[in-house]
Amino acid sequence: MYRFVDRPLTQLDDDMAFLVEAMRTWVGASMAGRCACAALRGPFARHGMPEALPDFGMAMAALNIDGLARLSFAPPGYVLVNDDEARLLALFSASRAPDPGPLRRHAAGLVAEDAVLCLMLAVERVGAAFPIATPTTRGNTPPRNAPRGNAPRRNDS
């Protein structure tokens, strides 16, 4: 969590910065009585991850309905990550670890016991769609279709 708190969005990779803005948009739409998923349909599609939207919505709903405490979010466009946003970024980051222990601990600290598995599954599915990494300089995330590691490159010639 501490690696994210008070960090400018420009110091996060593109996907993590997108998640922060998506959280803020979800909260703003919900508080205004609008459908949060409808508000995020365009942004998720433009980000190339429309399949992650239902699970993102489920994670946010679990936090809203079964949360152990009221979370605070900055308004859209705010340049820094606040404490609760950092907690959620740590949750999403934990979804990429091979050991589910950190994800379970983060989830258990956020929602009631009977909602932990729901939150974990939703976050894992979002994490599978997003190549979530640690904080880096924005723009360093390789394109989703770029070869990774020693992956063979396609030869078009």
Topology:
Layout: H1 14-31, H2 36-46, H3 53-66, H4 83-94, H5 101-108, H6 116-129
- Helix/strand-derived category reads mainly alpha
Number of helices: 6
User: What's the N-to-C terminus distance?
Assistant: 46 Å
Order of helices and strands: HHHHHH
* Low-confidence spans: 133-157
Query: How many distinct beta strands?
Result: 0
The radius of gyration computed from the alpha-carbon positions, rounded to a whole number of angstroms, is 16 Å
Helical residues, percent: 40-55%
Describe the largest sheet. Answer: none
In percent, how much strand structure appears in the residues? under 5%
Overall spatial form = globular
Averaged pLDDT, please? 84
What report would you give on this structure?
By secondary structure, this protein is mainly alpha-helical. It has 6 helices and no strands. The longest helix is centred in the first third of the chain and has 18 residues. The chain is globular. It starts with 13 loop residues before the first helix and ends in a 28-residue tail after the last helix. The C terminus is likely disordered.
The gist of it:
The protein is an all-alpha fold and 157 residues long. The protein has helices at 14-31, 36-46, 53-66, 83-94, 101-108, 116-129.
Keywords:
157 residues, 49% helix, disordered C terminus, single chain, 6 helices, mainly alpha
